[in-house]
Design goal:
Layout lengths: L7 E3 L1 H13 L2 H8 L3 H13 L1 H4 E3 L7 H13 L2 H14 L7
Parallel strand pairs: 1-2
Helix pairs in contact: 1-3, 3-5
């Protein structure tokens, strides 16, 4: 499980919308929307539906677009622990949040 510093930051109401969307949407649609592989879609579904406290930090960060947030979350599950550590290290060095966009 990720430590607190590598959790994906989301706003609570947007997360609830994402959770409903992921729960109600056919996995094939999620594959088409994100262009991710089946393993990442499975990781997305498991995290969003069952392990949200382990992977997400509800701090008020707004994405404003469900599709954009969906792609960001899927990208998050494609990162390796080493890659996440490098982002955290970069954030500490420059004093700003590093985005995957």
């Amino acid at each position: 499980m990720p430590d607190r510093s590598t959790r994906l930051e989301v706003e609570a109401s947007e997360f609830q919308a994402l959770q409903s969307f992921v729960q109600e949407t056919d996995p094939r649609v999620l594959l088409a929307l994100t262009k991710a592989g089946p393993a990442r879609i499975q990781a997305l579904r498991q995290a969003v539906l069952h392990h949200q406290d382990a992977f997400f930090s509800f701090n008020g960060r707004r994405y404003g677009d469900l599709k954009r947030m969906l792609r960001r979350v899927v990208d998050y599950f494609g990162m390796t622990p080493a890659g996440a550590g490098r982002l955290t290290e970069m954030e500490a060095n420059i004093g700003a949040t590093v985005s995957l966009d």
